[in-house]
Amino acid sequence: MNIKIHPHARVRMQERGATKQEVIATVQQGEQFRAKFGRTGFRMNFPIPAKKGYRTKQLEVYGLEENNKFTVISIIVKYF
Predict the structure, then answer these.
(1) Distance (Å, whole) CA 71 – CA 55
(2) 18, CA 20 to 30 Å: which among 11, 25, 29, 67?
């Protein structure tokens, strides 16, 4: 599947500490779930070196699939 990252999502990636590689891996290998407004979400955990007491970074990637192309429209990052 071809993955495109919308400019809005790129800004959120920078603000929230996600890399392009993590976003692509989340879409390709993460847990898929339904999201609001007919969108699709993907969720994946990444181990990280202890950062302020956190060991896991979780990405939630939201977007739309059309014509075998997935457009990432937003990203949420959680640390725990």
Answers:
(1) 29
(2) 67
